[in-house]
Every structure is written in C-alpha cells, then in structure tokens.
Amino acid sequence: MNTRLVGTVILMCAASLLTVNAYATDKPHKKMTLAEKGEQARIESAELEQTQLQKARDAANATAEREQKVLAKHEANDWEAQQLEKARAQSEQRLSREQKYLQQAQEAAAQTRKIPKETSDPAQSE
Hints:
The protein is mainly alpha-helical. It is 84% helix and 0% strand. It has three helices and no strands. The protein has helices at 2-26, 34-110, 122-125. It is elongated, with a radius of gyration of 48 Å. Residues 74-126 are annotated as: Disordered. This is DUF4398 domain-containing protein. Residues 1-24 form the signal peptide. Keywords: Signal.
C-alpha cells in the first residue's frame, strides 16, 4: 500500500512539472527595446512618486492630528495648573489665618490678667 501511495505521489509531481514547463514555453518572451524599457521606467517612476506623495500627505495629516491632540491635552493641563494654583492660594490663606490666630493667642497669653480681689468671702455670700 505504501509503495503504491509513493508511486502515485511521484507520478503527480512529474505530471505537474511537465504542465508547468509546457505552460512556461507557450508564452513567448518579448524582448523590450531600450526606448520601451525607458518608457516603462518613467511610468513606474511616476507611479512610485505618486505613491510616495500620498504617503507623505497621509503622514502630514497624521502629524497634524497628533499636534491637535497634544494641544488639547496641553490646554487641559492649563486648567489643571489653574486648579492647583487656586488650591495653593487657599492653602496659603489658611496658613496665614492660622499664624494670625496663633500670634493673637500668644499675645493674649503674654498679657498679665489681674483678677479683682474680693473683700468678702465667697462662702458667706451664699
């Protein structure tokens, strides 16, 4: 069975090689003149140039889109910076108020208070 399978595979390979060879010889190769080769090269060059120009346009558009995204993000950062500045200013105001209150408390503690002396005994007034 294996020999038969191997034989069939070899026969199919040989047949396909003959078919490919026959197909290749059916097409006559036309030799191009130098002028035709030059014209074909100009056409290919123009196509390549158009392709490169289109790629450059696409890249320029993509770059412009990225720039817009960066600018939009930068504007968002400006808002964020403003919010941080507001928070910083509020914090400084709170700290200055705390310092003022602390200074007032220290001044009040430094003052000597005189408690009036009563001549009468508090136990007698009840």
